[in-house]
Amino acid sequence: MNTEALIRALAADGRVHRPPARLMAAGLPLALAAGAIGLWLTLGFRDDLVASLSVPQSVLRFLLAGAAGLAGLRIGLVLARPEGRGLVRFWPL
Questions:
Q1: What three-state secondary structure class fits 1?
Q2: Is residue 20 classed exposed, middle or buried when 0-12, 13-18 and 19+ CB atoms within 10 A define those classes?
Q3: What is the crossing angle of helices 56-79 and 20-42, to 10°?
């Protein structure tokens, strides 16, 4: 196959691919729900969970885990693209 035939074949491929961000955003609520249900079924929740949220350190644990999750999600979205390898900065983590 010569170069011109390859270019024609690539141009004829009219499939539109969904961006990875839309695909991940569609599956994220389902994954979070499945994780919460799995946690609840295996370990159960603390009886004093609501009372523990009045302690600032407990709230900060949730915020830190959420921030790390968002940073990981962002890195995953950038690395899902071929040109994203040079754009990822791990130093904030």
A1: coil
A2: middle
A3: 140
Q: Quick check: pTM over 0.70?
A: no
Helix (H, G, I), strand (E, B) or coil at 33: helix
Distance between CA atoms of residues 76 and 24, nearest Å: 10
User: Tens digits of per-residue pLDDT, 16-56?
Assistant: 666 777 777 788 889 889 998 998 899 887 888 888 888 89
Gap between the Cα atoms of 8 and 12, Å rounded: 6
Among candidates 68, 76, 64, which has minimal Cα distance to 93? 68
